[in-house]
Amino acid sequence: MFTSLDYLLALPMVLLTLFALGILLIDLMLPADWKWVNAVTAFVGVCFSALGVWRIQSIYAHAGSNVTGQFGMANSLLVDRFALYFFYLFLAATAISILMSVRYLEVEHEHHGEYYSLMLLSVVGMMCMASGFDIILIFIGLELMAISTYVLVGFLRRDRRSNEAALKYLLLGAFSSGIFAYGLSLFYGLTGSTNLAVIQRQIAAIIKLRPHDPIVVIALLTVCVGLFFKIAAIPFHQWAPDAYEGAPTCVTGFMSVAVKAAAWAMLLRILLYGLFPLHEIYTPLILFVSIATMTGANLAALTQNNTKRLLAYSSIAHVGYMLLGLVAVGSGQEAAATDGLRGILIYLLVYTFMNLGAFAVLTSLRHRDVIGDELDDLAGLYHRAPAEAVLMLFFLLSLAGIPPMAGFIGKYFIFLSLIESSHYVLAGLAVLYALFGLYYYMKIANAMFMREGSDQSRLPVSLAMKVALGVTGLATVVIGVFPEHFIQMVNWSLGLVQTVPIASLIR
Amino acid sequence: MVPITTTHYLVVAAALFVLGVIGVLTRRNVVIVLMSIELILNAVNLNLVAFSRMWGLHGQVFAIFVVVDAAAEAAVGLGILIAFFRNKETINVDEIDLLKW
User: Cα–Cα distance between A300 and A296 in angstroms, integer?
Assistant: First the structure.
């Protein structure tokens, strides 16, 4: 029987589901020019869900500092501080995405309630991925998120590029989910359980008896392929530039931060907890993938003329940097592992705000018949909307990792962890690629400040968009200038992850 | 007569999985690609049900969820495909080329 604790742990997800269904009902009764009410409802839903997360957090705080997380729903759900951290991240990203969307959808004449409903449902899926402790729940969460996002990408159903992006995303996404599920089924067969704790114990026993057991290796490879597909690491990145370019710009922003953060939460939970006994096998694999990802993405980004596509490649490059943190974790040295993991989490935090901010600026360029995703559409932005152009410059500097901005803090911890685990060559390579990054980010800045645009009229910016830009801009600067508080927040979330190997690494 | 053991089921599932992967990678018709993805998911189901003979009910529960997921994916996939076909009048993967593939 479920107790009240089980329902409390599921409260954030239950609230979001109720609001998502509520939006579908309310949408039926709204006249065409009142659709903004759906956005307000969705925003309120996100706030209520955040209150639910806060309630769980405060109950843990009252229970004493040794209570770090609770199992719920027959041990399939583990809401620990790691999960709470990601819950807040998803909710913040969703709230900002909702603010970005209203005006864009009105311009596209596709302002339907389903959009917000799907967005909330995909957040429910993300929460299952971040807090799932059972491979069934993790898989269901992944699919709930993925299927909602396929529809969001194809939401402009009269636009060919949107259709095409959705189709490609769906085919490759479903393919990778299939491969991932095959790996999970093999792990179930090997260990006899779907619970991550049991899987970890049994795998450790198997690997002790027969190191390099072929079935274990096949299962690990298929699971890794699925995970790499979801975080869009090269060579499994093909869907990302297309899906990012064709999707409505506000959805691109949402996908590039929230969906990616959820995939990372799932990856960390599976690789660093469930499959940690195999870390000597998968670390070389991650090393290879991270080098390929940084090289391929940075080189491909150099020649792009479409801003959305450029930022897609840049987001793939950021995945490469984050994977380097995982290499340091796999090296087995305590200090390096701590900083690597801390680096990944703080990188995801700053990346959420800076990337979402950059996409918010691109979203606001959409008006009348200008789509605003070509580099030329940004030309002369400084004269059309000075505040936006300056904020965009902040986001770009932050993405490039220039010191006073937030992006620097993320890169700092990743590079620190590499040096601590004596991967000097790798650290040097990463810094070199960061310089490549500076070139293509400055290409955007050059267009904004140095070039004359064909359109000289002032850019209309809605109030919601101003709030979104303000919050992301503020976060990007504040995290960069006063990082201590945010580093403490990440320590809080990690130091008390109840998952044993990570906890032992952290201590 | 050789009794049919769990291993036999696993070999069939592995064959289905490989067929599905080959189908996704080589076929040019989107509907057939979607069918190949279903093949992969059915390989997963066969694996799960075969293993649940050894380990108990969890595998069958997982298999039911995978079936539901496959149905949802097919529904959304065909929906997107119809929207695409209305605009472009083709379901050939090679002609999905507006965005650089």
Answer: 6
Residues 42-71 of B with CB under 8 A from A: 43-44, 47-48, 50-51, 54-56, 58-59, 61-62, 65-66, 69
Per-residue model confidence as pLDDT tens digits over B56-74? 899 999 999 999 999 999 9
CB A384 within 8 A of CB A456: yes
- pLDDT tens digit sequence for B18-49: 999 999 999 989 999 999 999 999 999 999 99
Asked if A139's CB is within 8 angstroms of B62's CB, the reply is yes
How many C-beta atoms lie closer than 10 Å to residue A343's C-beta?
A: 28
Asked if A189 lies within 8 A of B24 by C-beta distance, the reply is no
Using CA atoms, how far residue A281 sits from A181, A226, A331, A406, in Å, is 20, 17, 11, 34
Runs of H (alpha helix) within A365-455: 381-384, 386-400, 406-420, 424-450
The structure tokens listed for B47 are 């694996």
Cα–Cα distance for residue pair A335/A332, rounded to 1 Å:
9
**What's the start-to-end Cα distance of chain A, in Å?**
36
Asked whether A418 and A324 are in contact (CB, 8 A), the reply is yes
Place of tokens 């943190």: A325
* B54 φ, ψ (degrees, to nearest 5): -85, -40
Alpha helices (H) along A109-134: 113-131
Q: Which domains does chain B have, with CATH numbers?
A: 6-95 (1.10.287.3510)
Stated pTM of the model: 0.95
Contacts 24+ apart (CB under 8 A), A500-505: A500/A273, A501/A200, A501/A272, A501/A273, A501/A276, A502/A272, A502/A273, A502/A341, A505/A329, A505/A334, A505/A337, A505/A338, A505/A341
| Residue keyed to tokens 């729903």 | A73
Domain positions in chain A: 4-506
Answer yes or no: are the C-beta atoms of A95 and A254 closer than 8 Å. Answer: no
CB distance B99–A165 less than 8 Å? Answer: yes
Report the SS3 class of residue A35: coil
Q: Are A153 and A288 in contact (CB under 8 A)?
A: no
Greatest C-alpha distance within chain A: 71
Instruction: Split chain A (507 residues) into runs of 10 and give each run's mean pLDDT.
Output: 89 96 95 92 97 94 80 89 94 96 90 94 96 95 96 92 93 95 96 93 93 92 95 91 93 95 95 90 94 94 91 95 92 83 93 95 82 82 90 94 90 92 92 92 91 79 92 94 88 60 41
ipTM (interface predicted TM): 0.96
How far is CA A448 from each of CA A304, A375, A445, A486, rounded to the nearest angstrom? 16, 9, 5, 31
pLDDT (tens digit per residue) in B65-101:
999 999 999 999 999 999 999 988 887 888 777 776 4
Q: Do A167 and B58 touch (CB under 8 A)?
A: no
Query: H or E segment at A440?
Result: helix A424-450
